[in-house]
Amino acid sequence: VSGSVNAMVDANTITNTGVGGGNFGNGINLTGSTNSRIRDNIIGSFGTFIDGDGIFVSGSDITRVNDNTITNVAFDGIDLESSADARINRNIINFTGNRTFGGPGHGIEVSSAANVRIEDNTIDNTGFQGGSFGTSGDGINVDGSADARIFGNKIGQNGGVDHIDGNGIKVT
Question: For the chain, which residues score pLDDT lower than 50?
Fold first, then answer.
């Protein structure tokens, strides 16, 4: 979805994006949009593969990402970049960074954003990695963002197979 107003991506099942040939494909890709809702989607599953982010949002203001289940993605579960007034609530994210050369596989990644609320998400097994290249997948990673509010999240087993360098919540 690109350049839309009032877009709603609701109740979809998305599996096997960008598979093969080094292609990358996000489960849901939202760019340059305003007042959008992404909710109640199932993205990836065990035995399938999302070769990118589960949900990627860039340059989109007033976005709500709620009640999604994201499993077995190569990079981040939810990646929000250069956006304002976003809410990321009640998502279940499991097994991110699940690619031999992928990563880092944060559960939720927010960068260069403003006024973001991240609450009541359940995040497990970030930076999982099936190969020998460990990653530093954080449960929640917020970088260069203003007015980020993070509360009520459940986060466990981060930082790859060996659980190296994975933070529960990292804000820089």
Answer: 21, 100-101, 130-134, 160-163
Q: Which residues pair with 70 in a beta bridge?
A: 43, 93
Edge-to-edge strand order for the sheet containing 8-10? Answer: 8-10, 34-39, 61-66, 84-89, 114-119, 146-151
Please name the residue that has the structure tokens 């709500």. Answer: 64
d(CA 82, CA 112) in angstroms, rounded, equals 5
Position 52 scores a pLDDT of 83
pLDDT tens column, 125-140? 877 554 444 456 788 9
Query: Residue 104 has which token pair?
Result: 């880092």
State how far Cα 101 lies from the chain centre: 18
Tokens found for residue 64: 């709500």
Helices (H) and strands (E) in the chain, counts: 0, 18
pTM: 0.88
- State the CB neighbour count (10 A cutoff) for residue 22: 7
